[in-house]
Amino acid sequence: MHACLFTRRHFIESLTLGAIGGSLCPHQCLGASFTDWRPDMPFRQLGRALSVQPVLMYSLPTHKARSSWKSWGGIQTEAAVGEEVTRITRELDRLQRRAGFALSVRPVRRVRTTEEASQLTEADHDLTLVYACTGSGNMLRACLAAKPDTIIFVRHESGPVYYWYEALSTAYLETDQNTESQPSRPPEGKAHVDDVVVDDLEELLWRFRAVAAVHNTRGTRIVALGGAWGKYATDAPDVARRRFGIQINDVSYDAFGARLRQMRQDQALLAAAERWTSRYLALPRTRLSTERRFVVNAFLLYAAFKELLEEHVATTFTIKSCMGTVIPMSETTACLTLGLLNDEGLIAFCESDFVIIPAGLLLRHIGGKPVFLHNSTFPHKGLVTCAHCTSPRRLDTRHYEPASIVTHYESEFGAAPKVEMPIGQKLTFVDPQYSSTRWVGFNGLVRSNPNYAICRSQQDVEVQGAWRKLIAEVRDSHWVAVYGDYLREAQYAARKFGVTLETLAG
Hints:
The protein is 30% helix and 22% strand. The protein contains 14 helices and 22 strands. Strands 14, 15, 18, 19, 20, 21 and 22 form a 7-stranded mixed beta sheet that branches. Strands 1, 2, 3, 4, 5 and 8 form a 6-stranded parallel beta sheet that branches. The termini are far apart. The N terminus is likely disordered.
């Protein structure tokens, strides 16, 4: 058993004693998660910091009379190199302070030869940020080969102009169209044209955010209660394992049922669930429109799901047969429970659909906010309706959106939040084409929170872009949405998994 796992006794003690301090193990372990539920607990930021190694690549010329002795570029002396290192350090310090996600920038490393560039392979970092000032093509290729993730930064107007602002080309960079006209290159030392940034630190920052999301999505450990499947794609769990490195930990309903029966006999836990229910229903703009006992039972289910996450050293949860199998054993539905997990910063999905789960994980890590997995509808007049019974409420990580706690729609049983999103709220959507390497992404604006006879949390959304393109994408699938505009990050990150994300650009 993992050294940091809690027993049920520790769990109950923590309910009595309150918070027990910081995490006891690395980032994927929940550590002190089994504490008294509070709606104001800090939103959990998952994953580890992206480690960035800035590299200033340069070669200083020697003056030769009556000869062409230097290349383009405003950095031709050691003094100028020192000033550039200071400039890079200052810019990256400012970027790191306002990143809004975990980012660790190493001191600038100077690279003057191909041999020094080759040594970057041995360095312990996630992403190489190459300031391609001057130097040979072999130096550049060696820098690019150091790690799978590389960004190239060149200056035009933000400081002394770089030689490689002129010299970068498809001789060194991949494109989406690999044509015969491109010169042959060795298999190592490649970057993509989208990995190049000229001057703009904002362009640098969103790429950092995307790469961090890739690293924190890859290798995710997920508890799958009732097993894994894929909507209209039976190979989806295998694709999730192979392409995204997702580690799926199956938990049977037989084992879970025995666990839950035991927990439902625990008087301390029952008292805690009652207390949590009172706190939850006291939240501003919260209306109870189902039986209170369903909410209490949803908190018991919450404790059971949290215990599974702890035992499997995971921060992500999904449940299959959530519209049937779990209801008799829990005397509620899983809808509200999944929302509670998302609201505190964990990741929870209904239906165990591994067509959408990889996209949901990536969008969660990109945005740093809860995501809403929902059903798609037929586009018309620039509108779509997004609906499911498991929406989070803390969608901006800070405030709980207004919600009525009602029954799950199809069963007319249990507890499900009908969440109202702000009118005009911008959303980013990702819609995978089953388990293929093609996704569709777009932005939308919330126009209303209607009350149709469909899943409880529902929004009519105005599609931004060439909405008619969505008509050719109807496949009765799940989509995932997050507050904000992260379309460029999602497109950039998807490529690193070998996935093409197409947008609705006109």
